[in-house]
What does this fold into?
Amino acid sequence: MKKLYGIHLNGLRAIEVLGRCGSLRDAAQELGVTSGAVSQQIIKAEAQLDCRLFERNPKGMVPTKIGQQVAEQLTQGFLSLAHGVALATEKRPDAITIAVPPIFAGKWLVWRLDRFNQAHPEVKVRIDASVDLVDPRMGEADACIRVGYGDWPGVLADELFPQRVFPVCAPHLAQRINGPEDLRQVPIVRDTNTMFGWDVWLKPNEMTEECLGTGPEYSDAALCLNAAIAGQGIFLAWETLAQDALAMNQLVAPFPGRFRTGISYWFVEPEDWRRSTPVAAFRSWLVDELAGGRK
It folds into this structure.
């Protein structure tokens, strides 16, 4: 056991997840970090263990023979840890935990959750604002709401609705805009951490990035939305993010049309997992709320 105490737990977790997922991208997504961060954790762990666990090649990181064996043993170990934690934190049968991206939780869900509580007072809902996916073996969240392509391994992903984007800006800034050509003359608020670009809106309107002006950049969509509300420029937003700001006239959509990004919202659950009555009630309510907001 003394040797174990000398190895950083994050490094062991990175080895386990990468060995199980098979790719840096999937491992990073599960751990909620960047691919580079996973790679650095692996390098540190290999140095502490004095053992090469993964081979580097153009396609990524492939476990060595001993690396695969170590990862499999670590999976069993983390499962035991998860089961121990589950015993200590056993949930009530009427309580559910839903993992939700922080931006979706803060800008949309939290403002509507009271309606679910009123409709289902017998269900206690805990919202976990995180980017982690459900792992059926780890006893974590009962379900997730996720944005992406629905191709996550080891889970069932039920599409809720496609993500659609459109430009938004403060009402006073909209007065300077008579048509798409005026985008050159106004600041553009850009999200440096987005999964899509302005081309999603520009291409259907027969425009290119060269038609856009400069403007402030932020690494968080919620900050970009607040910047647009503050009048700093035009931002390419999506429905659940901008819906309430539009309803309160903090923002306006200066152009008609909403365009799909190719990304969707998904209700994600463990594979081969029987959906509980409280989770089914939450999903049904969620579908109705999302549909109502898009009418």
Summary: The chain is about 40% helix and 20% strand. The radius of gyration is 22 Å. The chain has a mean pLDDT of 86.
